[in-house]
Design brief:
By secondary structure, the protein is of the alpha/beta class. The chain has helices at 35-53, 66-78, 92-104, 139-146, 169-184, 192-207, and strands at 9-16, 23-28, 59-63, 83-86, 110-114, 129-132, 159-165. It has a seven-stranded mixed beta sheet, sandwiched between helices. Helix 1 packs across helix 2 and helix 5 (169-184) packs antiparallel against helix 6. It is globular, with a radius of gyration of 18 Å. The two termini are 31 Å apart.
């Protein structure tokens, strides 16, 4: 989607969870006062297109901020997109009802899910699209949430998209994520002092 070539950009990186090459797409957006507004516009456009092309495909939208989900819900309603919501404030009975409706009722194709709530023992294999609306400090938290969709019992290819505002602190957070993944793979080779220095470098990266 190319809205305005000369304005600030928000882009989504797309990753398919089956062993297929990673691809990235860029989405140009008009300048807006709040980054959340740009993301809502981009996501709503993406979901409307998906609804037209694949009306039965179910999607899970993750955000670490329930306040962002509060803004997103009415935008989806205005776009005539049926949605459900699952977050940590809900009672157990209500959570079970939401999960049952999302799995079994075709009209509900979108589940809005807080990142933390999405990392705990859920089975969302009825979905095959995942949208990450903001990066988390640790990729492990995101990976755990994504695994709710891409887990044993999933028979479809799962596509994951991350919406990141270009030139914002979110890009720096992605760099920190990549560094942490590398460190995690080589922890046995690092001294305590080296780990401490790496944490300091992470903070410097975000503040620069």
């Amino acid at each position: 989607m190319n809205v305005d070539e000369d304005e600030d950009e928000l882009y989504s990186s797309t990753q398919k969870q089956n062993p297929t090459p990673k691809k990235s797409t860029r989405i140009s957006l008009r300048r807006v006062n709040q980054l959340s507004s740009a993301k809502i516009t981009a996501l709503t456009t993406t979901l409307k297109r998906l609804k037209k092309q694949e009306p039965t495909t179910k999607s899970v939208v993750f955000s670490q901020f329930t306040s962002f989900l509060d803004l997103l819900a009415p935008a989806l309603t205005r776009a005539n997109i049926q949605w459900l919501r699952f977050d940590g404030s809900m009672a157990q009975k209500e959570r079970a009802k939401v999960l049952n409706e999302f799995s079994n009722r075709p009209k509900f194709t979108i589940l809005l899910l807080s990142l933390r709530a999405g990392g705990v023992g859920l089975n969302l294999t009825c979905a095959k699209r995942v949208y990450m609306m903001d990066p988390w400090w640790s990729f492990a938290v995101e990976a755990q949430a994504i695994d709710r969709v891409h887990r044993m019992g999933q028979t479809e290819e799962v596509e994951v998209k991350r919406f990141i505002v270009e030139g914002s602190i979110e890009e720096k957070m992605l760099k920190v994520q990549e560094r942490k993944k590398f460190i995690a793979s080589s922890l046995g080779m690092m001294s305590d002092e080296e780990k401490k220095m790496q944490r300091i470098e992470d903070i410097k990266e975000l503040l620069s």
